[in-house]
Specification:
Distance between the termini: 27 Å
Order of helices and strands: HHEHEHEEHEHHHHEHHHE
Structural class: alpha/beta
Strand content: 15-25%
């Protein structure tokens, strides 16, 4: 992975809860080495924050089923066109996209097969589908669950894993083989893949769901995750996050997986 001068951590930290900022910063850094070609679809663009803070070129289409986040995405100026639609019935012509990206979206979709078939349909023969998802280690690596296992409270550990997956709104936390088979059924194949987000980074995300509640209240009341988007506001938190961010590389025990797929 090439070094890049973009400070993805700070860019995300000032606009997101700190635990989500760390994950998005690590993912954004991967895109520094991935040139995006031709006409691009952002599948499940949400509020557009990731695209607006990661990419320097305009994205042709941002698609999402939710009206509120899509309105916010349209206002960021990163998408040439913001479209409300479902992944299982993309309002696009056959073989019309050169690149499809989907950042931490597919794990939230109960029925993936129709979505993946639609992605394959709209991809040109040489197109790439770039996406990331949590994998089977997401729940296995949860720090509280591992501690409960160590002291013999396995039933509580299983319950906590199920609880955390539920509050994360995950329907899929699958291994590489499952994804390879799923993509193959849709007419796609994996051309590159790596795992990332170490247990240390996952612990930050895990406990951030609880310690980051003030950010949620700020978002609900004031419409922004952090009231003061200044470095002094993160003076106690930023050094420890940066240490994790700097050391995060693709790793065999990562709780997330990054995929690059092509049409068969």
């Amino acid at each position: 992975m090439a070094e890049n001068s973009t400070d993805h951590l700070w860019i995300n930290l000032k606009g997101l809860p700190y635990f989500r900022a760390l994950l998005r910063a690590v993912e954004a850094r991967f895109y520094d080495d991935l040139p995006l070609h031709g006409k691009i679809l952002d599948l499940g663009c949400g509020d557009g924050h990731f695209a607006a803070t990661t990419f320097t070129r305009p994205i042709d289409i941002g698609l999402d089923p939710w009206k509120g986040p899509l309105r916010e995405a349209a206002g960021r100026g990163i998408y040439r066109l913001a479209v409300r639609g479902e992944g299982a019935s993309l309002p696009l012509e056959d073989q019309s996209m050169d690149t499809v990206i989907s950042n931490s979206v597919l794990e939230h979709i109960p029925d993936l097969d129709p979505v993946l078939k639609e992605v394959a349909r709209v991809m040109k023969p040489e197109a790439r589908f770039i996406f990331c998802v949590p994998n089977q280690r997401f729940t296995a690596n949860l720090s509280l669950a591992r501690w409960l296992d160590r002291i013999g409270l396995n039933i509580l550990a299983r319950g906590y894993r199920a609880f955390f997956n539920r509050i994360s709104r995950h329907y899929h936390t699958d291994d590489v083989l499952t994804w390879e088979n799923r993509l193959k059924t849709a007419g796609l194949r994996v051309v590159d893949q790596w795992d990332y987000f170490s247990p240390e980074a996952l612990a930050c995300l895990e406990w951030g769901h609880y310690f980051g509640l003030p950010s949620l209240f700020s978002r609900k009341i004031f419409g922004r995750w952090n009231l003061a988007e200044k470095k002094w506001n993160f003076i106690l938190l930023e050094p420890s996050l940066r240490k994790i961010y700097i050391n995060e590389k693709p790793c065999s025990n990562g709780a997330y997986s990054f995929y690059i797929a092509a049409r068969v």
